[in-house]
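Cross-posting from the modeling subforum.

Setting up a comparison between two proteins and wanted a second pair of eyes on the formatting. Protein 1 (sequence, then structure tokens):
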Amino acid sequence: MENVLKYTFFLAFAALLASCDQRTEAEKIVDAAIEAHGGKAFETSKIDFDFRNIHYTIYKTPTAYEYIREFTDSTGTVKDVLNNAGFVRTVNGTKIDTLTEERIGAFSRSVNSVAYFAFLPYGLNDAAAVKTYLGETELKGEKYHLVKVTFQPEGGGEHYEDEFLYWFGKDDYLMDYMAYSYHTDGGGVRMREVSGVTEVGGIRFQNYLNLKPDDKNTPVEKMQDLYISGKLEKLSEIILENIRVEPLSK
């Protein structure tokens, strides 16, 4: 009788836990993917890396973020800082106050884009992100969970109309592929395939082959079929170099 009571209590407790988890299937998959790629290390670390001869320093927590890029051009040493307070550019240590709103927007989008992709899949839990589970699929003999991410206008930034697809391994939840459509700079659609992995400070950093279709108006949902049929062209490579991860003081 005692064993029966214990088993009944266990079932009731398990049912209670299940009923308390109100996450959608897409949210559960994304949470598992974030954990597989670094989990809490994303929001407790400052990350430095070089990308296309530009140095980046980024951190992002649920309540704050700061993205910095530094490079040298004909004007001197340029430093761009994008954070919760806005965007600031300095050249040789002097703040530039003559930037137009258009230029500020362009610089901000450029810095944000690099930080966003470098931190994936962590940013997929931003408040404005809307996640939809599209079911299981298969690429190169491997099974994946396919998740679509869009953004609400409120809090979604200037790119809220963009659409993203993510392929997460069915068993390991690693993000091996992604595709997205975008509307800035004339618009287009891309697919990225992981080409290399570096693990630093408990975080998984990924390099990608950047692929594109012939028609820039291709729906993002068609990218998997084009990839399988070999109809995507290699546009560039996304490679992060000299990666350093420094724990943030608590």
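Protein 2 (same layout):
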Amino acid sequence: MLNQTSPMSRQALLTEANKIIRNHEDFLHGMEATDVEQKGDVLVFRGEFFLDEDGLPTPKTTAVFNMFKHLAHVLSSQYHLQD
């Protein structure tokens, strides 16, 4: 799939991902992609997961996980990480 996608720098991918996050209907304050890596054909996004004081998931954790999954689906079909 890498041959069918356009190369994009890490910073440009993060900028695009955070634009998508901010404009998404499920956006929560503090939700942000802070890193991205290429795993095969998939872009994997990372950021704050909003764990509680015991390190356990909160309701926001599911929303963030779903957003990063959405980013992977949308952006992996268009771009690959430029080395």
